[in-house]
Amino acid sequence: MTSTKSDCRAVRKDRVKHLSALPEQGRPAQDVLAELRDMRGGDLPTHGGRLFAYVYDAGLAGLDDLAAAAHALSAHVNGLDPTAFPSLLAMENDLVAAAAQVLGGDEDTVGSVTSGGTESLILAVKAARDSRPDIARPRLVMPVTAHAALAKAASYLRVELDTVPVDPVSLRVDPAAVAAAITPDTVLVACSAPSYAHGLIDPVEPIAAAAAANGVRCHVDACFGGWTLPYLRRLGEPIPPFDLSVPGVTSISVDLHKYAYVPKGVSVLLHRDESLRMPQYFGYADWPGYTMVNPVISSTRSGGPIAAAWATLRHIGDDGYLALAAKTRDATRAIGGSVARIADFAVIPRESTVVAFMSSSIDLFVLADELAARGWHTQPQFRHGAIPASVHLTVTAAVAPRVGEFEADFAAAVEAARAHGPIALPDGILDLLETAPVEQIAGALGLGAGGGLPDRMAPVNSLLNAVAPAVREKLLIAFLSLLQRPSRRP
């Protein structure tokens, strides 16, 4: 590396000031809040349409205040026992009914409110696994583009994972290949609407039909886009059938903290009927305490997020979500057009609210850094087999007013990335991976213990892109463990 090497070593150790969470003497409330605001100053922007991952911003004035007030009203309500707090039970049932209304449910549809998409997916896998106690080694079949949270569910629940490759050009799975992967030990087939990485909708109808023909459950992971796809269809977009209206689909999940624009973390897992949901529950009475019965993974849980979600949906309403979907669609079209007009990029066809693109001539990791330097925060994605590396942009309604700014900055970032050229990894770093301590590897890339991060991530991403997925996992686990260490004080 040339100049990038020095950039890489410019670790931002002062990004966040570390304070004792347990001082000898308590601090005044106003001082604590001031300290918290100061710490938040080092975070990426959650509002304003410049962060294309992790957060979802409707751009609606007053929405945060409403959600915060609703959260405060129910923050100390405990979801452990709905008979003690009927308000929370009512709000959860209302949210499930709203999700069923949007996602093709009927009078038999039931569901649960969870803390997020990962919990919804874990529970979908649990319900499928526990519905077949006769299978000693249950298996889950899914396209390789399915969300990693499904692999996490399989790992946690000791379910064998069978991933089906996708075409490296179209990035689509062949339904016949999914059907061929189903065995007598398969308890669940999963597909995406849309896939997170590229925003493409799996062929749900033939996949669900294949699952049903084999007597297997089919779960649709619509956590990411399930709240927008129905509204985009109403706006005239060619959205294929994907929800509970499709025969053979037995469950579906949708995250309200994504395009329903509620605060983190609220998701809904829907089942076609009560018999399908029953194996999701956990019950235990064989001890002297209270009988534990839980529909979700957590026992004690705050009613704050659920109340904030309920208030947000009530405030925005069906007509408001249709308007937000229209703004998001227009912004997605415009952002995708800005990228497509530059010959260096191959833009993946738009089917949802994602702009994803690849390039054979521009180092995408350098481009991501150049965009970040201009205030636009994207999500680089690593190569996978024959699928090249890409950049992912989750477009929200808040992006719409900033499309012109993005177009100008994107063009400038492309020129800067082209002039910079591709990243060259530090000499010999690949040879160190198996022998050197993680601190040495991290130091060469600008990562420091206790939260130190380099100003530019291209060297880190380039290394991760160069290695096999198993090595990538090992490195990232080690890097994260290095970062998640309390600061040392005398």
Automatic annotation (TrEMBL):
The record's annotation in SUPFAM superfamilies points to: PLP-dependent transferases (SSF53383)
- Swiss-Prot/TrEMBL keywords: Lyase, Pyridoxal phosphate
Q: Which ranges of the sequence are coiled-coil?
A: none
Question: Out of the domains of life, which is the source?
Answer: Bacteria
User: Which coenzyme or cofactor does it need?
Assistant: pyridoxal 5'-phosphate
Task: Please give the InterPro entries that the UniProt record associates with this protein.
Answer: GrpII_AminoAcid_Decarb (IPR050477), PyrdxlP-dep_de-COase (IPR002129), PyrdxlP-dep_Trfase (IPR015424), PyrdxlP-dep_Trfase_major (IPR015421), PyrdxlP-dep_Trfase_small (IPR015422)
Q: What is the similarity comment for this entry?
A: Belongs to the group II decarboxylase family. Sphingosine-1-phosphate lyase subfamily.
Name listed for the protein in its UniProt record: Pyridoxal phosphate-dependent decarboxylase family protein
Q: Which organism is it from?
A: Dactylosporangium vinaceum
